[in-house]
TrEMBL record, chain A:
HAMAP family: MinC (MF_00267). It comes from Oceanobacillus bengalensis. This is Probable septum site-determining protein MinC. Keywords: Cell cycle, Cell division, Septation. The keyword NAD does not apply. The keyword Methyltransferase does not apply. GO terms for biological process: cell morphogenesis; division septum assembly; regulation of cell septum assembly.
Automatic annotation (TrEMBL), chain B:
Signal peptide: none annotated. It comes from Oceanobacillus bengalensis. The lineage of its organism: Bacteria, Bacillati, Bacillota, Bacilli, Bacillales. InterPro entries: AAA_dom, MinD, MinD_FleN, P-loop_NTPase, ParA/MinD_ATPase. This is Septum site-determining protein MinD. GO terms for biological process: division septum assembly; negative regulation of cell division. ATP binds at K11, G12, G13, V14, G15, K16, T17, T18.
Amino acid sequence: MHDTKQLITIKGTREGITLFIDESCSFNQAMNELHDKIISSRPKNDEPIVSVKVKLGNRYLKEEQEKDLRKIFNEENRFEIHSIESDVIRKEDALKWIEESKMKLVNRIVRSGQVLEIDGDLLLIGDVNPGGKVVSTGNIFIMGHLYGIAHAGVDGDRSAFIVASYMKPTQLRIADYLSRAPDYESDGVYMECGLIDEEQDKIIIDRLQVLSHKRKEISRFERRIQNG
Amino acid sequence: MGEAIVITSGKGGVGKTTTTANIGTALALMDKKVCLIDTDIGLRNLDVVMGLENRIIYDIVDVIQGRCKLKQALIKDKRFEYLSLLPAAQTSDKTAVTTEGMKTIINELKQEYEYIIIDCPAGIEQGFQNAIAGADRAIVVTTPEKSSVRDADRIIGLLEKEEMQERPRLVINRIRNHMVKTGDMIDIDDIVQLLSIDLIGIVIDDDEVIKASNKGEPVAIHPNSKASIAYRNIARRILGETVPLQSLEDEKGVFQKVKKFFGIRS
């Protein structure tokens, strides 16, 4: 060791190991030391694969750098990267998050044949008529009648949900899930929400009250900060 | 300066042509100068409903392509002096008419007539675009059927994109009395709520309408039928009068009155 200060710190936890990379040294320095560490601490062949959480502190990794990092771990197939966490994000990404987390207010009727597409959460004051469609990357709140199609979390956010004052949709879609109205004539429901139920693995429609404990981080921004 | 009103519906067969003929006739009955335009090129029948088929010499395509003057193509109605019809062409197709051509014709007619009623073809293609091009207002016709209401919704969406003086207004056509009573028909209130535009009239499904149009005379000239009164009411509402909606109930006979007296539901 040429330096007394450790650039790479490894801590073992019950879930696996957490790896701290010093935030003030250069990337190459850190990578060299990491490489040495991994070679030296090579586990024996019969040991199970170890999950690694990488913490970067105030360091931002470019795409190539992240690739390099993953490559070092992948060379030794005893490790599996669980996550790479950094305390900093790019301004560009932050602005995008804010943009996506803003509530977009739209005041109109979405009629048959019309499609309303929104980045982020949608608050629609007005009806979605049969044959009309609303699509958002976040949640959908409708103060009005939902008769048409609503698609929340279109980019794959399964925690997105759909709320409407009156719900009698032809289809509800959340991320890659889809549910449609029953074939028999049925009445709509007032003040209910549609969300994905993990246990049943499908979209369910339930009273609005369940949202408060099923979707605690109602704001998309909070969710992203916590889950990346 | 006149006003151009387009009668449209999206779906075919809901009664656009009948509505055009009857609103035009009802306005003419009130001494207004009215011109009807049939824009359903290739499938014209406003002239048949008006009973003017045998008088057609030139048509709208002839006017647009400069083969005749607008005045030459207009057909004067046989009953009213100030009611005219600009017929559609039967041999050309819808591409023969342009939106610019329509606007020119309508602007010219506005100098002479107080109301120009445009009969729109079914569908949302070029023919529809032509028909609404020069219109100041729109009336959407629907029947109490799901498919027809759905198409009306689509049409209203398209009309809202156009810059018109006011929002489209709604005519619900072919309402069947007995089905309203049994609850087998979509409720008028539900249609109005879904489409969320103002209702300008409801017309009961009346055999007289078919009888009259087969004879080539719009039902609106006969004062006694329910449909005729409905169309006259629509015309009065176009003129800005406030007319209450027609009651759907038939006149009650003595027997029914007695039953009602005893509290028996009829």
